[in-house]
Amino acid sequence: MKKTELVTRTGNTYEKGVVQKVLQDNLQADGTRSGEQVVTVKMTTGVRKGEVIQMTSASGFLFGTACTPGLHVIVVQSVSGDSTVSSVYSRDRGGMILLFGLLYLATLIAVGGRQGLKASAGLIITFFIIIFIWIPLIYLRVSPIRSAVVICALTTILTFWCIGGISRKTITATLGTVSGVVIAGIFAEIFSLVTGISGWNVSNIETLLTIWESNRIKVGGLLFAGILISALGAEMDVAMSISSSMQEVCRQNPGISRWELFCAGMRVGRDMMGTDSNTLLLAFVGTEVSQLVLNFAYDLPAAQVLNSNNIGIAVMQGLSGSFGIVLSVPITVLIASWIFRGKPSESTERILQ
């Protein structure tokens, strides 16, 4: 895919290296760091691979790191002929991030067995769909909201197919999940209309405007698309749990009526509403902890806090997803009541078994 060049990176690369010596430290007597370290780093990648280069490492919280001999780092390097300008960007975390990801998948498989393996496959599929399909679609100026709905449906179908194949249970869970995601999007849109909050009010709008000006990406829909994607996991959890429970009820009591099955499903769903709504709300609150602490420390007036864009967006995200969860419960239960108590044709029965 051809991308519009926003920043000239000619000659600039991010390479790996290992700190050899600290020639000048920036550690102060009180334990804090100020200024820059001067270090030597042996490059392990790039055009200067194998060479030991002297460079600086800033003491900032966003860039640079406290270097010690043997530390693996990422180096920002600009090479022009025999001239090289280098500085430490950060410590090399890529390997540990990958290791923790693999450790999680291994734990999931060890605890879940065959189902854990299927869940791992679904998780990997979800990751690739979002990174390699959804994000490029947005860059190609496809509507973020419409593409998010399609991606949510596709992710749900493939994930449930990996976990349980094509069955009444997975069909029920898929329909329930998609309905919950759509409901979350509807309530987010309503919240936006009545409060005036949109995708243009996010904190990084200045950076996004650069992309909008160069490529006309639909920036205004990114916020709502993110709400749909973030609500997907909780919606899948609710829908699959209800579907599995109701299927088990049918197996244990084959003669149960459709109404009795509906009532049983609602009892299960009501127990899940509170916990999953809390999960979603707390997840969004967790992303705003720093902002909440700042609001508390500066003793900001309630009117200022309630009407700030950051708080409004967090409330929109949490409540919209929670609306989707709560209202998806009766929808999923209703769908399950009809599917599990329906009379499919012989050919359909063979497919769904």
UniProtKB/TrEMBL annotation:
The chain crosses the membrane at residues 52-75, 95-113, 120-139, 145-163, 175-197, 217-234, 318-340. Keywords: Membrane, Transmembrane, Transmembrane helix. The keyword Membrane applies. InterPro entries: YibE_F (IPR012507). Signal peptide: none annotated. PANTHER family: MEMBRANE PROTEIN, MEMBRANE PROTEIN-RELATED. This is YibE/F family protein. It comes from Porcincola intestinalis.
